[in-house]
Amino acid sequence: MFLKQIKLSSQAKDKLSRLKGKTGIENWNILCRWAFCYSISEDTIPADLPIVSDSNVEMSWYTFAGDYGDIYEALIKNWCLEKDLSIDDENLAKYFKLHLERGIAHLSGTGFIKSFSDLINLTEEKHGNLS
Which pLDDT band, with edges at 50, 70 and 90, does 79 fall under? Predict the structure, then answer.
């Protein structure tokens, strides 16, 4: 396993707190899943900026991924392979964290997310109706 613990930056924690209030989603891990998936669906590579993991929001890989850890790991591995990046554990952890932080920033920066249904609408706009 490439990552055992996930600790967020203070900025990400603050942004997630605002998203929690807007969407009614109470659990950090659920919002983090949305954020990761949103970022990884972008065509660009996240900026390779240092992440200061200085908040008190920390979760295990299992808390983040639940029973779907293999799927999230496959997503980041596949993304790295598509970008011709190494898939060693260090690189996978690095890009996972960069995607997570970028996804949180994107979701909190989009002024139209005011409710849970706005997250659904964002997904439908990006990928079409999933039903």
Answer: very high
Angle at CA of residue 13, ends 7 and 17, nearest 5°: 140
**Which CATH code, of 1.10.1220.160, 3.40.190.10, 3.30.950.10, 3.40.50.150, is assigned to 5-121?**
1.10.1220.160
Q: Which of 51, 64, 40, 61 lies closest to 12, judged by CA? A: 51
Q: What is the pTM of this model?
A: 0.89
End-to-end CA distance of the chain: 33
Helix, strand, coil: what percent of the chain each, to 5? 65, 5, 35
